[in-house]
Amino acid sequence: MSKQIVYTDQAPAPIGPYSQAVKVNGMLFVSGQIASELATSGDIKAETKKVMENIGAILTAAGMDYSNVVKSSIFVKDLNNFGAINDVYGQFFTSEPPARETVEVARLPKDVNVEISVIAV
């Protein structure tokens, strides 16, 4: 098994003892990404777009892109934002979108409104 830690300064540095992403045997596991600088803006679309851009930067650092994503997990503070998040999220997966779940949670790191993680191959 070959294990590679993936890091880019084009996405937020980890805020705890974890890696932005880990690549193992051609599979990339991207940690949940947030956009803390936009959390208080009240603009869930801008926050989601920044999260997806962070994921894109990590995918690029690993030699991949959005077409490699096979699974995503979305954690959101308010499920009433589901439609707005989907509008932005869908712009990054225009064909053959990955499998996914969306879960409402009580609280997220740095009080953000949305966190997204992905698995890519």
Automatic annotation (TrEMBL):
GO terms for cellular component: cytosol. InterPro entries: RidA, RutC-like_sf, YjgF/YER057c/UK114. It comes from the Bacteria. Signal peptide: none annotated. GO terms for molecular function: deaminase activity. Belongs to the RutC family. This is RidA family protein. It comes from Spirosoma terrae.
